[in-house]
Structures are given as structure tokens and as C-alpha cells.
């Protein structure tokens, strides 16, 4: 299965195929509004603003699987991210990113780019996956790696 075969839901509930992003570099992030890493939203937004015209798409996927650090209402998530962090990149519906109910996107990402010591499980919010223009998952970044530290990797793919 290709990443482009996966369907997701927008933050407003509309079904969407990742096929829409074919030919773009994607930075896919599991997010949480109340997480200590939430200031990274600003860095993600800066990447979006700086590189979207060159083909970068930042995609946020809220998850409430880590210490209940996400708001439970998707419209509240959208408002919070826009007001507090200036987010204009695409946000999606709340998903599970690990466990039996993990969304197919995150099963695909973690299989293609295992974490530390080969672990497939996502350990915390703001784990990031970089996908090249052909849909290949090229790198996984831990939550402690800031968007600024990913920028050079993104530029190589653009």
C-alpha cells in the first residue's frame, strides 16, 4: 500500500485522500494542544510559510493518547492552534497513533520509519515523519527535534 492510498479526515470532518499531496514533500506530525512541545507549532507554521510554494506540506494530526494533552473537540483544536500559534497548515481529525486502533497512516509511517532501537511505537506527541515527493517515508524525528532542526532535511528533498 502506498501512502497515497490512505484516507484521512480534515479537522472539520471531511474525508480526504493523501493522493492530493502526490508530488509534494510532506512533514506529518502527531500533535497535542496542551503538550509541552506545543510551542513547536510556531516552527511548523514557519516551515509551512517558507516552503509551501516549493512543495512542502505540513500536516498536523491531533492525538489524545499521551496524558490527555489534546482538546476533545476538533473545532476547539482548530481555534486554539490558529489563535495561540498562528497555524494555517492543514490540521486533521483526532486519531490514534499507536495501539490496536492506530490510524492506517500512522501504522504505515511507523512501519516505514521505526524509532529508537527499531521500535515502531510512537512514544509521545510531536513525533515527525518526513515523506519525499514520491511518497517514501525518509526519516522519523523524535518529539525533542524541533522544526528548525528538520529544515535542512526538508531543503534537500525540495
TrEMBL record:
Family to which this protein belongs: Belongs to the glutathione peroxidase family.
PROSITE patterns in the record: GLUTATHIONE_PEROXID_1 (PS00460), GLUTATHIONE_PEROXID_2 (PS00763), GLUTATHIONE_PEROXID_3 (PS51355)
Keyword field contains Oxidoreductase: yes
Active site per database record: 35
Transmembrane spans: none
InterPro entries the UniProt entry points to: Glutathione_peroxidase, GPX_AS, GPX_CS, Thioredoxin-like_sf
GO terms of molecular function: peroxidase activity
Keywords: Oxidoreductase, Peroxidase
Biological process (GO), any one: cellular response to oxidative stress
Domain of life: Bacteria
Name of the protein in question: Glutathione peroxidase
Amino acid at each position: 500500500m502506498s501512502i497515497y492510498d490512505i484516507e484521512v479526515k480534515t479537522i472539520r470532518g471531511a474525508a480526504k485522500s493523501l493522493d492530493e499531496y502526490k508530488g509534494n514533500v510532506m512533514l506529518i506530525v502527531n500533535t497535542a494542544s496542551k503538550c509541552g512541545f506545543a510551542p513547536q507549532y510556531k516552527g511548523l507554521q514557519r516551515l509551512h510559510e517558507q516552503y509551501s510554494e516549493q512543495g512542502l506540506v505540513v500536516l498536523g494530526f491531533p492525538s489524545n493518547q499521551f496524558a490527555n494533552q489534546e482538546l476533545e473537540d476538533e473545532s476547539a483544536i482548530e481555534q486554539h492552534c490558529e489563535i495561540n500559534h498562528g497555524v494555517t497548515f492543514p490540521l486533521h481529525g483526532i486519531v490514534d497513533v499507536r495501539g490496536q486502533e492506530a490510524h492506517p497512516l500512522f501504522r504505515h509511517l511507523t512501519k516505514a520509519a521505526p524509532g529508537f532501537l527499531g521500535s515502531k511505537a510512537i512514544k509521545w506527541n510531536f513525533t515527525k515523519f518526513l515523506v519525499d515527493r514520491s511518497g517514501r517515508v525518509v526519516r522519523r524525528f523524535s518529539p525533542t527535534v524541533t522544526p528548525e532542526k528538520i529544515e535542512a532535511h526538508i531543503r534537500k528533498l525540495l
